[in-house]
Amino acid sequence: MATNSVDSDNAGSDPTLATALARGPFHVALRAAINARGLGLDRLRHRLLARDLQVSTTSLSYWQHGRTRPEHPKSIEAVAALEEILNVPPEACVACWGHDVPGAPDRFV
What is d(CA 22, CA 40) in angstroms, rounded to the nearest whole number? Predict the structure, then answer.
């Protein structure tokens, strides 16, 4: 199984986050990044909104629990912003999409 390069100071100092970013799947990596940063979903939603990216707390919750995965262009843009907000390397969470469970349904958010 391929691993992602994790060189962020935040990811490097948290072994759980570093492992999640290296191994995935996406929802595990996202949840670990959110937990490592200590921000609530509502606070993340507000930070995204400040960047003109509208994502509901429900969507953020679904993403971090694996119920859905961001696939629309604006959702993918929001994930890139989340990576920056959460202080993880660019595309670290997105790269974990390749680690998602084979055969899992793709759902759009």
Answer: 23
Both tokens of 37, joined, read 């940063």
Residue 78: count other Cβ atoms within 10 Å of its Cβ: 24
User: Measured between alpha carbons, how far is 77 from 83 in angstroms, rounded to an integer?
Assistant: 10
72, 52 contact by CB (below 8 A): no
> What does the pLDDT look like over 14-24, one tens digit per residue?
788 999 999 88
**Per-residue pLDDT at 10:** 47
- Asked if 12 and 6 count as a contact pair (C-beta separation under 8 A), the reply is yes
- In order, the DSSP letters of 19-57 are HHHHH--HHHHHHHHHHHHT--HHHHHHHHHTTT----H
